[in-house]
Specification:
mainly alpha, Rhopdopsin 7-helix transmembrane proteins, two-stranded antiparallel sheet, 8 helices, 2 strands, globular
Length: 300
Amino acid sequence: SLSAGLDLPGRFLFATLTLMTLIAILVFMEEAVYIYRKIPSSKRSIIIWINAAAPVISATSCIGMWVPRSTMFTDFAAGTFFAIVIHKFLMMMIKECGGQKLLLRRFENGRFTISTGPCCCCCLCLPRVPITRQTLFWLKLGTFQFALFRPVLVFLSIVLWTNGSYVLNNLSPKGPALWISCLIGAFTLTALWAVGIMFRKVRILLKCKNITPKFALYQFIVILNHLQTTIINIFATQNIIPCAPPLSSRARGSYITQQLLIMEMFLITVISRAVYRRKYHDLEPLESVAEEPGDKKQTP
C-alpha cells in the first residue's frame, strides 16, 4: 500500500497536505454560507462556483496523491470543473456591470479590443469590434465551448486509456494523444481569449468592485493548473525528473504536481476569501458614467 511505502518524513508531508486540503474545504464552506446570506441571488451561484475552483482542485489533487491510479479521473474532475469556472468568470463580469442589457447601454458606442492575450496580443493591426448583442454572444460562446468540449475530450481520452490506445508518451500523428491535446489547447486558448477581451473592457468600470485582484487570482489558477502541470509532465515524460524506485519518473512528476497544487490552492483559497468577502461600492448610476476616451457620452 502507499502508506506502507512511506517513511516518517513522507507520512508527515502527506498528513500536512491532507490537513491543508481539509482546511481549504472548510474555509470555502464558511465563505459559501457568507455569500449565500449576503450576496444577491442573481450573483450568488456564480461567485460560489468561482470560489470553489481552488478547493476543488486541492481536493482532487489530494485524492490523486493518496490513490495514484485515480490520477486520470481526478484530472478529469478538476479540468471539467475549472472549464465551467472560466465561463462563470465571464458571466460574473457581465453581472457586475448590471447584466447584459445595462452593459450594452453603458458601452453603447464602445468597442472591444481583440488584440489581447493569449491569442492575439501581438496582432495590433486587428480592428476593434463594436459592442453589440452579437459580439457578447460570441464571447460567451468562446467560454461555453470550453466548458462543453473539454469534458468530452478528456472523457474520450480516459476511454481510450482504459483500452490501451491512449498513451501520453506517444505523440506521433497516428496516436490520439497528440490530436486530443492539440484540441484541448485550442479550446483553452479561445476561452481565455474571450475572458481577456471582456476584462480589458470592463476593468476600469469595475475598479470599485476590485475586479483586478479577482482576475489575478483566476489567472494564477489557470497558470498553476495548466501551464505548471504541463511543464512538469513534459519533464517527467523526457525523464528529466529522475525515477526513485518504486516510483517511475512519470509517477514522481505526478506526485510533485499534486503536492504543489495542494499548497498553491490552499493559499489561493485563503486569499480569495479575503478578496471576495470585502464589501464593495455599487456602480455609479448610468447617467453619470464617464465613457472611455473616444466613446460618446451616454444619454440618460
